[in-house]
Batch of 2 targets.
Target 1
Amino acid sequence: MTDYLLLRHRNIEHLDQLDVYLQNGGFSAFKSAITNMQPSDILKVVKESGLRGRGGAGFPTGVKWGFLPNNLWPHYVVANADESEPGTFKDREILEKNPFQFIEGLMLASFAVQAKTAYVYLRGEFWQIANILQNKLAELEQAGFLGDHLFGTEYSLNIYTHLGAGAYICGEETALLESLEGKLGQPRLRPPFPAVAGLYSRPTVINNVETLTNVPLIVQHGAQWFYGFGTEKSPGVKIFSLSGCINNPGNYELPLGTPFRELIFGLGGGVPKGHKIKAIMPAGASSSLVVADKKALDTPMDYESCMQILGTPLGSASVIVIDDSINMANLVNKTTHFFKHESCGKCTPCREGTYWMAKITDRIVRGAATDDDVNLLQAVTSQIEGKCLCALGEFSIMAVQSAILKYRPDFDKLLAERISELETPALKFEQPVV
Amino acid sequence: MGKMVTLTIDNQPVTVPDGMNVVDAAKSAGINIPVFCHHPKLKPAGMCRVCLVEIGRPEIDSATKQFILKDDGSPKVRFFPKLETACTTPVSEGMAVITESEKVAKARREILELLLTSHPLDCPVCDKGGECPLQNLTMQYGPPQSRFLFDEKIKLAKNYPLGELIFLDRERCIQCGRCVRFQNEIVNDPVIALSQRGRSLQIITNSEPGFDSIFSGNTTDICPVGALTTADFRFGARPWELKPAPSICNHCPVGCNITFNIRREAMNGGKWTIKRVMPRQNEPVNEIWTCDKGRLVYQYLESDQRLTSPLIRKNGKLEEASWQEAIDLITEKIIVVGYDIAALASGRLSNEDLYNLKELVHSRGGQTILYTHMAGGDQSARMGVGEGTDFSTLGPETAILVIACDLHQEAPIWWLRLKNAARNGVKLIVANPRPTRLDEFATHIVRYQYGQEAAVLSAFEPGGKGFLAEVNELTAREFADATNAILFFGSEGIGLLHSEALAQAGSNLLYKTGHWGKPNNGLIGIWPHGNTQGAWDMGFKPCMDMPDLICKTRMMYIAGADPCGDDPKLAEEIKSIDFIVVQDLFLTTTAEIADVVLPVLPYTEREGTYTSGDRRVQRFYPVLPPRKNIYADFSIAAKIGRPVGLELEENAAALVFSRIASTYPGYDRLTYQTLAEVQEQWPIIGRGDLYYGGTSYDNHQGTGCRLKNEIIFGELFEPTELHLPDPIQIPGGTLLVVPVTKLFDNGNLMQFNSLLEKRKWGAELLMHPDLAENYGLQAGEVVFLDLEKGEPYPAVIKTDGDLPSGAALLPRSCGIPLSGPRAVKLVKMAEKD
Amino acid sequence: MNQLAENYWEEIQEILKRYPPDQKRSAVMPLLFLAQRKKNFVNDQSIREISDILQVSPTDVASIAGFYSLFHQEPGGHYRIQVCTDLPCALRGADGFLKALSEYLSIEVGGTTSDGLFSLEEVKCLAACDHAPMFQLQGKGTIRYHQEQTIETAKTIIEGIRQSASLNMEGELS
């Protein structure tokens, strides 16, 4: 992709500096919005653009903004920068290299829903990024883009950062709000939804960083322009984070609807020499394992196609590539441990179920398991399914179920070998791939 | 009546108020949906997932917005493939719920198996076994075996003290969150919380002392497993060995309904023994709760130190005697002293006891004195809240004024009810010289100085008699204009003199603002004992000039009071009385100087009635067999009366009560039968289905009856000319010290309980740091209070920046005899000889 | 004496300004990070001090400290070497990297070096999957990423810290 929309810093050097950003049309959308347009105009154009949430759920952004009632104030906007899904690192690049476009998107969203205060919730590990972001916000305040009565209008806006402290579940909307409010980061019951009762029980919009980064361009160029990229139901571009057994890991901005093949073999350089691709996880650890056959590789990467053709959501488009050197039982042990560690513990099936799954996969990879254990593992996933309070529990079973279904021989192999070491054997690759 | 919704549950039509959740709706129709984290008194949580049921909703035509109908005219109902949690789902018109089906049973089995993967196989040694919802539900729906490998089960602390009163077994905890939510939502004490996450989610406490809440015991009732147990009952007995015995707590004027659990045990010589105290449901009184004092302080009832026989002073020493001897001696004296006889009794006695004693003494022309530091019961009898009063029904049309009281310490369950009432919109006006835990929920706070109580209430009157800067007009109007108004008055920092004026001022205020004679209006006294209101009703009044009375008395009959132990100066005076009879459970200091000591049965070994502070009469029932050779107070009075020509009911408390009913207008139409009637209660708590409400006991033995207040009986009420007490003089070199009530004090009955040592208040003088500095005192320093009652009393200084700077506070019942505010000379350690 | 309030008064005020005045509870997390600066863990005293400053019960503050992975309630190294061994990093050699580090530092995963400078911890995805293997260094109130590591580059970083680190009287890194 030569003309980046979101990763514009790859075209323009030093775009993370305010003067460079301004020189390149920065904040013209925001300025014209608050001086010439109504909040409802911004809402309308974003709705019509068909922009969908880029955090994983793919919910139409403009529709979400439209849910906020006008009889309860103040309104809040929260940017979800808690990027913690394994295999996801797209928001990081935006925050590090093109922060102003994201901030401008956040500012436009705030104006659209008439919020006077916005928060950026960053995962705690982004400590450095948060510090720099705070400096950038201070710069903007100095330059008159944030604060009171901006550009001589009635509109005032302040943006603050809030650091998380190492909890994947805080990427879930309502858990994020709980965390921001200073409570345990455990998801709330829905309804009510954040749009109606969110931060401090007020109407709140929560959007992913990448989603917001699209907004200034949409406001600038219009809804129709956005449909020039991607597909009809999934318009626009998406940043795909490519990782795993791949020669060129990294972020790739592509129109939605680009097939997996182009990402993995075209730009990604394919799997390391001497190996064949085995499977794809399109949505990070919260994916089913997709057998990397021709059908899969030809599948367009958009929200509809993935679901319809591959039976798994595109999610955050964190594509993890797995080659034939990897045993799926080992892989699944990694994912079960991830979910066990990150479960918030509020609901029984996730709290007990992720713990149980991890215990079983531990023994499988240690060679201290039997065929019954693999069957039991499958049974436990069904036990968890459909009962959890939030999506974490539901997603925790996907890799496990698909691995047992499609890669049973991998499990049988570890049972047969009866390795009696107590340590988890390292996955292949002693050296990083260059 | 709000909007009602009709749905079907298991094909049964059910109509309930809109907004109710499916679990509660099913319960009201007699259908039990298993729950762990849900509790009808808590907000729904949706955590445990055991209440998953099939829910179908009628399909709606998007064009007409009407239900799509089937051929037979009934709405087409669509069931979603995913089960939903009944506790978080509000009912809706036409909803169909299926609580018993293969799908639901499978889901329950799976959730139970998941819970049991971490739950230890402790049933044989677990206190909850036998009254355990998890056990019962596993028997009903659970898998017979677990597929989890036993040696992979998580190992956690099994004996973790959340403070010294409540123990946590971390392995048993199923993370339902009921305890934490109870502490946060209901009693506003965030002293326990969930921490860590995932499988490690656990309960912690970081208060000093741990689990610092006077309601902590209730969490052991609502805990659905044996994770939370009290130090009192832990490993005490198996539930199936216990018999329930209903009673009433008499520590404070709320009158919580309780149930004693008893069993006969070999280690106690085959005697029936109290193993624990549980709350009994009485929604208008204590809902399903009780405070930790009521739950934990009962050991005195069975103490070995109890008197076992009458004692008579012979040759200067008290010696055991027979009842006949004792009664002969007493009746002999009664005849001799004529009308120079006085009875001194406290609100610890039941109505029956007090009635018979009064009859005895009045028949001789003598006086009946209430031993108390608080006056005003005649006012609350006249102006008390009437029938139909129910705190839970009150809303914004009601104003409640609480004056001179630390309600959290003096009547914990009323604090709980009023704070919840405030949450429902009641205008709560809190008037007190210092901040208390009720302030947080107050609509208005009024600060005044100790001694100004009555003047404050006068300032509330329309026209504001004696305008006080502290009461602004808005606040006064809020009270005067409210449709309903209830006035609670306590004894914060005051004694008889000021409380009498306070009660009078309260009556006047209620009368002048028209808040009397109807439900949810009236005066409530926050008395020091459980039956103080009853004592007033039965004809006992405090005496404003005890020394004068004592001079004129030749025989004093003291029942349920220890004036000599409380106050050495009073002891000196009492000693001078010719003949003293003491009737008590223990050989108190007063008993030691008596001429005759008579042993009595505690309320657990007989029956009777108490009248609560809000004028509800409740029966208590025998819990344990009465000890031999001991009688109830009322029986003793009858035994004494007979030889002097007075026929009193000696054996049946019910018959004493019928005499009470025919004597006092407020008590008429009440009988032991009417008192034993039970009103239907919601939520439905009980033995049948433990998981829904917890293990509090349901009430089969009577929810009590309210008294009519006297003012209804045509007695004309004239607002009394209020004489404000003179301001308290503070001569140079003295400090104003005022008495305040603490829940866990160092009183007589607390001596038999070792669990509450860390939480008891002792001889501590509480003052603002500035005040301490003025007197050259430091926190932690020991200072001596010269009360001109013998040796000065030591007390430890404790500073608190929230206290007013004009007075120092001293807890009652801590060993220092201060019954009212006074100027006290402080003697420093160095100055003491 | 509230040490946090004394040492960080201005910063605390700045933090409080971010949230509505009646929502002081939101500041618990930032204050926990503050409390962790000197010794790389939060002790009971800090919890009470935060409770005092924000008027939130000590139990509630402690519950937050226990929920999140970046708050430590037990002492560890002045620098916590946190290696991501989650799936994408593992696919690129992170497990082997962790083992090598453990051998180099002569401590088990979860342990602390005898000079108290380093502890070695295993953590979940740090959003650096394209630069694996990597670790983050949590210490002195900062969190910094060190990406595309080999055991050699890691050694350089560790020894660099060892040489320049000095502990003051209270055992805190200066």
Note: Chain B touches chain C through twelve residues (CB under 8 Å).
Target 2
Amino acid sequence: MSRRPGRACRAARRALPLRHYGALAEREERALARHLAACPACAGEWEALRKMLVAAGPATVFPRESEVDWDRFARATVERARAAAVAPRWPVPFRLPALWAGLAAAAVVVAALWTLSFPTRPGGDRIALAPPGGGLTAESARESARMIEDRLARRSAARYLSDSRSLLLSLVQSPARCRRSGGDVDVSLEVERSRQLLRRQNLYEGDLEGLRDQRLAFLLRQLESVLMQVASLQDCASEGQIRDLREQIEQRQILLRIDLVAREIGGRTHVV
Amino acid sequence: MEPDDFALMDGVKNDREGAFEALVGRYQRRLYRLACGYLRHHEDALDAVQETLVRIYAARGGYRPDAHPFTWAARILANHCIDVLRQRRARPAVSLEETQSRPAGRDAIRLVSSEESPHERHERRELGRTIEEAIAALPETQRDIFMLRHFGEMRLEEIAVCRGCALGTVKSSLHRATRALREYLSRREPALALGEGERT
């Protein structure tokens, strides 16, 4: 009859995988080694775990990895990458229009500022406010363009957060039963939408990074992680999978944080 | 001494000679294993790796060193794999059996090992399939974290950044994943998974 392991044994067993992956601090490593030397049951656990993880190496799990000539593969990859860099780049459906829209809007703002920055005398003659020969500086034009780009990126982020929020809400609040397997949850729509959102995030990424908003960046990373989990579900997910996702969303307070960040972004988009 | 990943990526960004080749050599197998975890298909995994590395090269100018280069690469790969999985839905499913036995379309880059007997190879593949099933049966978070550490060889801190979670979550998920794997394998491959305590 086997005895239930004590507290020290449970702690030691939690640390075993970390030991295998070399993730223990020196002090923890020494303490664990001492415990293993004194506890045959934990030492046996360690041996079994090590044996299993070694057996589950790439050569066993991915047997065809060794069939690939990786040097040739690397050469082919480098050639393809260089050829792709020389050839016209693949279309980026969001950024190009955004760039042109930004430039066009910047031109309109510059023109408006140009007009407004020259008050007229009662007689109708313009008074030059800038130094002679200066006019509106390139710096202020760049600043205007930057502000417009910033506003467009914030709008994209606000839309993205709002769409993600409604997806997560529909996932946690109103699960539909799967017709095929009775007890499971039909998440086909959510899976599809999360994939679309992940693709959108890829397209926005450069623009959003430009905002340098730590809180938004952190939220987006967490959101990406949840969306990736949703995207990889089968159409009929189990109750357990949905419960896991619900717990994650609640623990990280993702819905609340989306509300807060979206409100903040929404407020700032009007300040240009 | 070999440059670390950040220095290497800096070289790629600044078009230093040989830097991209070195990066490809360093990452391609790790990415392949991650891609296999997502796609469970050799050919698609190779395509995904190549596509990811091409995208890295194309986007090298925009790389910011606040994320580890492999973390960045793994995210690009994951997004690409999600797209592939979506496209695959429109096609009839390919069974694992077919996946393993199907002749490769990339004969030019294949090199069949002759050191192993057919029987040994068969046994190893059977074991590999059992382990693959055990990994596939893990809950999503545990599976991803296990894959990133065990096959992607990422540090736990990098995994935490990559997944936007706490280091403690990574550690506990890794513990749960290895325990679940052992439980699964103890039913299918008892000799592989039993500890001393369980034998007595």
Note: The longest helix of chain B spans residues 167-188.
